[in-house]
Write a structure and sequence with these properties.
alpha+beta; two-stranded antiparallel sheet; 6 helices; 4 strands; 37% helix; 16% strand; globular
């Protein structure tokens, strides 16, 4: 398994699950979500009421990157695209969104939709190779054709309790 950029630079403390040096470990989920909702309020305006941004700590930077890309594409193509739900399910990242297009056949909207779909596809692919705990390079583990464990790096997979499905 390839080493992450942080590991290659010798910053193992930042990769240690639960370590105070890890940037995401220092920020509780509620505080992170509040900060993200404040920063990306327009993109998250269509978020399902009462639902949190339900992703593992290691995927937080992916989610923020995705929201930034949605914001950029929306502005570029003058769309009202919104994200309705972001979550982890069956070891994969799910990113549900609404394009906010009144007339899908007008102007550059077909290009905009293709770009948005490419953003989601890229995020989902990147999540499959990102440790859910620390954000380092990881791999999804399938215990059968129907059971998947969320991606973990070598270090964090050792810490996974046996019989755990996440």
């Amino acid at each position: 398994m390839a080493k992450s950029k942080k590991a290659a630079e010798g910053d193992d403390a930042a990769r240690t699950p639960g370590s105070p040096e890890s940037p995401d470990a220092a920020e509780p989920r509620e505080a992170w979500e509040a900060r993200v909702r404040e920063r990306y309020g327009k993109v998250l305006a269509g978020y399902i009421a009462g639902r949190g941004i339900e992703v593992p700590v290691g995927w937080r930077s992916l989610v923020e990157d995705g929201l930034a890309q949605f914001e950029l594409v929306s502005r570029r193509f003058e769309l009202d695209a919104t994200v309705a739900l972001v979550k982890e399910k069956f070891g994969t990242l799910r990113f549900h969104w609404d394009e906010g297009i009144a007339d899908p056949g007008a102007g550059d909207t077909a290009i905009a939709l293709a770009v948005m779909n490419a953003v989601v596809s890229d995020l989902q692919s990147r999540a499959l190779g990102t440790c859910e705990v620390c954000g380092a390079d990881g791999a999804i583990e399938r215990t059968s054709p129907f059971v998947a464990k969320s991606p973990r790096c070598d270090r964090c997979s050792v810490a996974r309790p046996s019989g755990s499905s996440s």
